[in-house]
Design goal:
Elements (H helix, E strand, L loop, with lengths): L2 H26 L7 H13 L4 H8 L3 H14 L2 E5 L7 E5 L1 H24 L2 H12 L3
Antiparallel strand pairs: 1-2
Helix pairs in contact: 1-5, 3-4
Length: 138
């Protein structure tokens, strides 16, 4: 198999493992309705703190209508809330609800589970080599 095929297979294997870990965790906790794009929005809102719609759109490099549609759905699902600015009634700040925070905590836990699998199955040298190799592509 050529280099491109090996890399594609490896990326697919990691993606599949991560998907399986996330699916199992999210379904067992009642979060199965969240899409990958919505997950990205939740992570970004958490990272930014209390962004406005415009700040979120700018950070994600998407249009305001795209943000509005996804945020509307996340509000309906109970993951996000919006609060009108006291200074400018046209501006709304976004934040995660308790449910949104629980989802993000679970998502972080899934990442830790994957990290633990790596630690359990690779030697210290292999972990260092993996980290060095991955740093070349980020």
């Amino acid at each position: 198999m050529d280099k491109k095929g090996i890399v594609l297979d490896t990326v697919e294997m990691i993606s599949q493992l991560m998907g399986e870990l996330e699916s199992h965790a999210f379904e067992s906790e009642g979060f199965s309705e969240i899409t990958l794009r919505q997950m990205l929005y939740l992570e970004t809102i958490d990272f930014l703190g209390t962004p406005t719609f415009s700040e979120l759109a700018e950070h994600l490099r998407v249009t305001l209508p795209s943000v509005s549609g996804i945020i509307k759905r996340l509000i309906l699902l109970g993951y996000v809330q919006k609060q009108q600015s006291a200074d400018d009634g046209r501006v709304y700040f976004l934040s995660l609800t308790e449910k949104g925070l629980r989802f993000n905590d679970l998502h972080d836990e899934v990442h830790k589970i994957l990290a633990q699998r790596i630690i359990q199955n690779l030697s210290e040298g292999e972990i260092s080599e993996l980290a060095e190799l991955l740093s070349k592509i980020t």
